[in-house]
Amino acid sequence: MKSDISYLYKPYLHTRELMPENQETPIHFLNERTTPIEYIYKRNHFLYPALDSAAFFLPVVGEVERPMVFPYNYIKSLPSKTIKMVLECAGNKRAYFDPKTYGEQWKDGAISQVAWKGVSLKDLLYFTGIRSTAIEVAFEGYDYGTRKDIDRVFPYARSLPLEKALHPDTIIAYELNSQPIPYDHGYPLRLVVPQWYGMASVKWLKEIRVIDHKFTGPFQAIDYVYYPNKEDDFGKKPVTEIKVNSIIQQPMNYSVLDTGSHSINGIAWSGHGTIKEVELSFDQGLTWKNVELYQDKNQQHLWTFWKYAWTVEEKGEHTIMCRAKDSYGNIQPLEAEWNRKGYGYNAVYIIKVKIE
């Protein structure tokens, strides 16, 4: 009898940093529509926070008619919804920028696809009421620390414009993939903002504050800003929606293959709309071939799996290029829009393989 050694053949998270913990999803080896919890990428700015019983009470204060504190169990008792979505770090693929940019050198794995369950933020704000002076909603997490560029302790905090905060799919989540949110992903409560990069989905939610001014915390006014110039801040703009993007999962870059038939497969995604087309080029972008898409009909916030049957008899080195197009006409560019903090890389994906 052969022993079962399948447990030996499994992917692992790829460590970028341990303190704070930053780990990449092994995205090239996963084909599940929902990323298993053990493979969801981890992005932290500080060490994990120490939580106490106060973490199970969520204050909503500021420019509201009736400031309230919502107990965890009360939030769970409210009508809920489940949001299946791409969760992508704004720095995903940062390692591919040229010139290089500073920060975690993420490759392809600062992205996962998950299912959140929770209550719409607008439903909580219905109980408190919103004053006519309100223009943003700010969110503070329990995680905090000293920034390297400012010798002060800051919590991780960000805001949303009122319109985005009141979108029915912006939720206060308490479950991830049908179980309580794990501690390292924001337990007990996490803000979840579909369509936007992951920096918007504040973990370990401590307080919601409706405000009558623009929020200027460092994780919004300094970080998560596109700075197109190396030496000055001219032309800066905030990082918000996920850009149209794709990767080739298999074969991997610099693989050695035999002649004959091969399956090229991958994923494509966009924060704005859905994926309508994925194309491959084998001649440096002179011509493009459509691939077969595998989509759910109602996949507003999900990535799209794709596959292409490639028959190759010519030995030697081959370059394969991949680009995606979404339902709003956005298409991956040949070159990403360089910015000095390395956000939003979405250039045409390129691998090289050798046929022997």
From TrEMBL:
Residues 238-355 form the Moybdenum cofactor oxidoreductase dimerisation domain. GO terms for molecular function: heme binding; molybdenum ion binding; molybdopterin cofactor binding; sulfite oxidase activity. InterPro entries: Ig_E-set, MoCF_OxRdtse_dimer, Mopterin_OxRdtase_euk, OxRdtase_Mopterin-bd_dom, OxRdtase_Mopterin-bd_sf. Keywords: Metal-binding, Molybdenum, Oxidoreductase. Its cofactor is Mo-molybdopterin. One of its GO terms (biological process) is sulfur compound metabolic process. Residues 47-217 form the Oxidoreductase molybdopterin-binding domain. Pfam families: Mo-co_dimer (PF03404), Oxidored_molyb (PF00174). The keyword Oxidoreductase applies. It comes from the Bacteria. PANTHER family: SULFITE OXIDASE, MITOCHONDRIAL, SULFITE REDUCTASE. This is Sulfite oxidase. It comes from Clostridium formicaceticum.
